[in-house]
Amino acid sequence: MPRRGLLHAVSGEGLSLAAAWLAWAPLATRGLACLSRALRHLWALVSSPWKRPGNASASLPEPWESCPGLRVYRGGDAEAELLTVHTRPYSFQVDLAQLAGESAYFQALSRSGMQEAVGGHLRLDHVPSPAFHAILQWVFLGRFSLAEDELLPAVQAASYLLLPGFLDRCRLALRPLLGPQNCLSYLRFAEAVGCPELRAEVCGYLSTHLLELAAPVTHQLPPRLREELAGLRLQGPPKLCVLQKENVTRGPRQQPPTRGLYCRPLPPEEGGWHCATHLPFQADKWSFSTAQLLNYLFIMGGYREKRGARGFFFRTAAFRYNPLTGVWHPTASPQKRRRHFSTAVVGHHIYAIGGWYLDSLLAPDSSTCLYTAVERYDPWADRWAFVSSLPMGDFSFAISLSHDLPLCTAHAGSIYTLGTVQRTGEKLLLRYDVDADAWQELLPTLTRADADLPGLYFLGGTEPLFVVGGNSRGNVVTSFSVASRQWGPLRSLPKCGLAGQGLALEGLLYMASPDLGAILMVDLAGPDCALLPPPPFPLCYESLFLLHFPPQAADQGGGAA
């Protein structure tokens, strides 16, 4: 064959091979692309258990992102037309009817006859595709799996699309993640996107740990929000609580193991006493006064601690108990070493009034000096400060005498104390104006001719203030109207000993009666009395108060010490 012909034949064969390659190249490219996607999907399935939250940008795409078939969600009717929802950056095809059953947004869309519903296309370009995918997984498949960094976008989308069920599930997922370092960020986010479910969850966390978070978090909140959080602490049912304030007679071997804070349903509800918590210290002798503030129990005073081989001394101490968590925390002690002193709560402050030197175990007598200094405790700063002292003058006040009877109460922004004029035996009320930081006498006095009350047991109530006292013939109830400055009539009560810190609530007085061995419930407006079962320890110097416990733990015993 001539050389020219051979070259011509070779060139024709090369052109045929090139044409064949150009025909198969697109098919080969598509095949390689499918193989690449399959390998990526396989890698995603294998590596998904090791994905870390927060590294989504560095991870491979999810299968549903690269496969449109995985973004189709059908309901029970397989023949129903699907709505195409365009999110950022992917689109989904969904059964509108099933989605409308969970979302008020899509329910309104399905009934509106709008162009989006009729045309089968809805643009939600502001909704991130991962958030919408999580919603569809929950609505159609009942699956919920969101990392911490995926929760907030999903909450924002669900809040916009009005999906209360999904928001509740997000709220439960967020609960164990809340902490001091992120709770304010979550609160600001919930308020910014207008999500009441998320805000309620964060506020619930803040209120449960209100004072525990005071220094880093809640102390910086606006007063109105702090009041809201304080109100949330009262959602659980109130319980009548009793605590032994003092033990200065029994040795360690006689110390019963049942000492603690006991609670029972508030009458007229029936129920027995349950131990909510034990005291946060170990001691054979102690003396504490109590106060209830922001649904916390505060105890302030001290306990005896061994020093050396045979010596002892009293250590000042103060604690607060959170009934919503069952945990005690130490707090600052009063600056005076007080025992047998009264407390009153006004606003968000506790006032310590009267009392005797802590280290003296003897009953107060004519040689024992009563503290006139008054201190105020700020729970947000955990700090005590002195305010105006008691104007003792020629008055001998029976504020927390030897039987530990705190004749002190608070009402309408003022503190009232009841005392006895030493020379005449008249009963005189003093009023402390918290805002003015000043004391004044409230005249007239209650003379011996009006009422023979050598013993005073209780001062409390609202308007009027009730006074309970006793003489050799029996006990007496009278009242004093702060508004009209008048004493009320006398009413007789059965003769019995009363001791400790009583509680006046809605016209009823609850107070320990050691000689009856029970809690006495007195109708302050009438002569009716009733006995409540005693707690499982002998009554002596008990304090009665109200605490609100979580609903699920209201009728359960136990607690953390």
UniProtKB/TrEMBL annotation:
Keyword Repeat on entry: yes
PROSITE patterns per UniProt: BTB (PS50097)
Keywords: Kelch repeat, Repeat
InterPro entries: BTB/POZ_dom, Kelch-BTB_domain-containing, Kelch-typ_b-propeller, Kelch_1, SKP1/BTB/POZ_sf
Domain called BTB: residue spans: 79-148
Top-level division of the source organism's lineage: Eukaryota
Pfam families membership: BTB, Kelch_1
UniProt protein name: Kelch domain-containing protein 7B
